Cell fate regulator YaaT (PSP1 superfamily) (Flavobacterium cauense R2A-7), 447 residues
Amino acid sequence: MACNSCSTSDGGAPKGCKNNGTCGTDSCNKLTVFDWLSNMALPGGQEPFDCVEVRFKNGRKEFYRNTEKLTLSIGDIVATEASPGHDVGIVTLTGELVKVQMKKKGVNHEGEVPKIYRKASQKDIDIWSDARDKEEPMKVRAREMAIALKLEMKISDIEFQGDGSKATFYYTANDRVDFRQLIKDFAKEFSTRIEMKQVGFRQEAARLGGIGSCGRELCCSTWLTDFRSVNTSAARYQQLSLNPQKLAGQCGKLKCCLNYELDTYLDALKGFPEMETKLYTEKGDAVCQKIDIFKGLMWFAYTNNFAQWHVLKVDQVKEIVALNKEKTRIAAIEDYAVETVVEEEKNFQNAVGQDSLTRFDQPKKKKRPNNKKRPTAEVEKQKGAPERQNKIVPNGQNKPAPERQNKITPEGQGGQNKPASEGQNRNNKRRKPNRNKPSNDKNEPKQ
């Protein structure tokens, strides 16, 4: 589970533990134990427990002995014993609760336990951070090399030791893999000590984390540590459809949550007859089709009419089975059937076709009307335009008009259209009327 301060962002990056948004898959409060003894003092004369719990990448936790009597608290970064060199981790639990956790995980606190060297210095933290930055590109390159050697394996994660002297490769495989050549290539490519560790598919999902179909973080990556085997019978007892896509989790195996309510279902099924129970009647034999565990009902159908089901209570089924053992047949199971209330069919109105399919479409914009009207004959008279006369010309007198000749007029002599004085032809060139302004012919001066 992510810490509360991860939701507080500054410039797009969450604050939290400075992992920049990788809290769900980078051990931020992952499998954390609540220290409810933190505000309670020890009895007088009793020394605090000398072992602490240290967390590493992706929820890996180990126990170490504080031989140097360091003052440690939850969240301190420490340098721990490793082979070879040292590792760097974060303290997650101190005090008497560590003894409880060691007993829970089967670790003897009186035996040989690795020790803590010191609190990590800034140099140790820098080396640790640089090694963590190399893990992702190294994982991509390692997968390419495994594919080149045609090995049936999947490299899921890489974890560097705190001092950068060793890299542990976590992989999954269905069968045994001969990766001797792969280790040589890794050592030559990455120039570090290589350790290969095989994990199961459930452990892989627990290390990497993810979101389940329920919308929550995976149980195995937050609180579940006991990976029990899950069978398809668990789905049958709970009357679930055997759909592999719905029953499988992120790891590709059956979901661990199928076992959560299995014991409750098994206790409820103790009072039910078996699914293979047959009821012998004079009307015919009836077989069980389905059961409802919570309501205590069973559905039966005749072998010659599977379309019609009859509901019986568990006590009634047991009574019929007891009569059949005495070689007594009942008339029909309808006599024992539970009266089912038939719901009245609701009179729904068919609204198909009542509304237009284009009711949400935007209407087309109408064109603006053209207010410019052609001038009439009376208006042309007022403007001084000459009237057009339709003259009747006798046949044979329609001669083509002579073509106009563009005569070149010498400069300074002018032409036929040359005004007699300056500004004489200015009134002949009238401006076009304004379309936006209504025309008022009465107020217009006559020429």
